[in-house]
Automatic annotation (TrEMBL):
Annotated protein name in UniProt: Uracil-DNA glycosylase
GO cellular component: cytoplasm
Molecular function terms from GO: uracil DNA N-glycosylase activity
Catalytic site: D65
Family to which this protein belongs: Belongs to the uracil-DNA glycosylase (UDG) superfamily. UNG family.
Reaction it catalyzes: Hydrolyzes single-stranded DNA or mismatched double-stranded DNA and polynucleotides, releasing free uracil
Major place of residence: cytoplasm
NCBIfam families referenced in this protein's UniProt entry, alphabetically: PRK05254.1-1, PRK05254.1-2, PRK05254.1-4, PRK05254.1-5, ung
All residue ranges annotated as the Uracil-DNA glycosylase-like domain in the record: 50-211
Amino acid sequence: MNVDIHPSWKAVLAEEFEKAYFKDLVRFVKTEYTQHTCYPKGADIFKAFDLCSFDEVKVVILGQDPYHGPGQAHGLCFSVPQGVAAPPSLINIFKEIESDLNIAAPNNGNLERWASQGVLLLNATLTVRAGQAGSHQGKGWEQFTDRVIELISQHKENVVFLLWGGFAKKKASKVDGTKHHILTSGHPSPLSANRGYWFGNRHFSKTNALIEKSNQRPIIW
């Protein structure tokens, strides 16, 4: 695993990359990718950081695990590459955007366009074995991504954290709520959304209102 990420992140995370747990994690991931099919492909593991520099972060959306089906994961939570059918959670995200902002759902599920506007699409675990959800949990990724959240909280101001579902909501403790904004709701998965925990949260208009209040350009969702 080559930790080749945007220079702005390298500066912030240099200490983390030298820690024993991270070196163990790198060894684990290299072995997994050698012995099994894993997602996303190696070059995409840190794509969320490549497309959204530390300096540009305005919004953090937190997922749990990469998609574990062929061709879906490409390093951005909830996102799939162009030409791949949008999974159910992403369809529900687009439905909420449609009702919240009155804009038509896009014709593809590639969220790189969000990342390039300052939305960090961060999974708590950045890799997974094919067909085995959660297979790379508890190996060090969570410690790393928790630290990413803490460093954003420490070094930046007025970032909007979108925490969807029970797992993501637990990360609120890593964020200084006195200088950042935390919006929570149910998860966009059908199980949660169909019970009324997702639709109507209006997180996309609320996020833009908060961003504009701090004199930043709103996200074109």
